[in-house]
Write a structure and sequence with these properties.
Length: 244
């Protein structure tokens, strides 16, 4: 299966401190890849490098098996940190502005995108009056302009209530399964991540300690109580931590 992202010994140094230390990883087409790590592990730094918002100090990445990152990044949609949109505009108006910003002249994609994220019935409602879950879905909608093949989401469920988390989970699964979009998710909500991810990478103190599939995780956790899948306990085991 072809690779969407290949990172080769990616290093990032800030004032002689390594935020990333020779990180090598591989995301295959069709993956929902869960990037796991504590705060300060380097997750956002790695995502910023992938998206072209920061340059590595060492190493390199390929996107869609290409070293032409300028062209390849046109196939990426991103939601990094807080959702960014115009609060006094409707969802449709925000998408029209995004199309203009990206040079997408055919705005016929807008109704489809609104349907994809479940915002087709918002009509004249301004984004500032959306619930947190709706705001996050709008942010994802904006990232879908241009029909990306790869979606990069940094903490997409951060601050959401259980209903909002469920909505984002179902949306990610739909984008992956129905629209065949490969997804990279950075998240610290491991119980939620374990419900959707097909592959994982554990990042700790700037180093990628391990990559494994959903099937690998089931095998690793088979000796847990009732044989249940427990991503958190395995994560803590790998980084040498203890459940508090």
């Amino acid at each position: 299966m072809s690779s969407v992202l290949t990172a080769n010994k990616v290093t990032k140094t800030f004032k002689q401190k390594k935020a990333l230390d020779e990180v090598s990883m591989d995301i295959k087409k069709g993956d929902i890849y869960g990037l796991i790590g504590k705060n300060g592990a380097g997750k956002t730094t790695l995502i910023r490098i992938i998206c072209g918002l920061a340059a590595p100090t060492g190493g390199d990445i390929k996107l869609f098996d290409s070293s032409d990152l300028v062209s390849a990044r046109k196939e990426i949609g991103t939601v990094i940190e807080s959702p960014a949109f115009y609060p006094n505009m409707t969802a449709k108006q925000n998408l029209m502005a995004q199309c203009k910003l990206m040079g997408v002249k055919n705005t016929k994609c807008i109704p489809k995108i609104l349907h994809m994220v479940g915002l087709e019935g918002t009509d004249k409602k301004k984004a500032k009056n959306f619930s947190l879950g709706m705001k996050q879905r709008l942010a994802i909608a904006l990232s879908l302009v241009g029909e990306p093949k790869f979606l990069v989401l940094d903490e997409p469920t951060n601050g959401l209530d259980p209903e909002g988390i469920k909505e984002i989970r179902e949306l990610i699964l739909t984008l992956n399964e129905k629209y065949e979009i490969t997804v990279l998710i950075s998240s610290h909500i491991l119980s939620e991540l374990s419900k959707i991810a097909t592959r994982y990478g554990i990042l700790h103190q700037g180093k990628l300690l391990e990559e494994f599939t959903e099937e690998d995780l089931w095998k690793k956790c088979s000796e847990n109580q009732n044989g249940e899948l427990d991503l958190e306990s395995y994560f803590l085991q790998v980084i040498g931590g203890n459940r508090q």
